[in-house]
Amino acid sequence: MDLKEVVATNLRRERHSQNLTQEELADRAGLSARYLGSIERAAVSPSVTVLGQLARALRVDPSQLIRQSGRARSS
After folding, report:
1. At a CB cut-off of 8 Å and minimum separation 6, what does 22 contact?
2. From CA 4, how far away is CA 24, in angstroms rounded?
């Protein structure tokens, strides 16, 4: 799995677990909802700065957004 897809999956999963809409998360992170949607669709790669903003808004460690699940790891 491509890292953009990993980030997209983890971001969407975490947002849903916190019952947040894209608009709510985007507002918390200081991003546009359109840009957040692009990240969640793996259409764009977020910068390290944006990953930090999203992690802070979700109250998670940034590494959680880039961590691959055990099955999807590649060497």
Report:
1. 15, 33, 36, 37, 40
2. 22
Give 70's DSSP letter: G
DSSP code string of 7-28? HHHHHHHHHHHTT--HHHHHHH
- Judge contact between 23 and 33, C-beta under 8 A: yes
Residue 29's pLDDT is: 98
- Please list the helix, strand and coil fractions of the chain in percent, rounded to the nearest 5, in that order: 65, 0, 35
pTM of the predicted structure, to 2 decimals = 0.88
CB neighbour list of residue 67: distance below 8 Å, 6 or more residues apart: 6, 10
pLDDT of residue 71: 53
Are 70 and 63 spatial neighbours (Cβ–Cβ below 8 Å)?
no
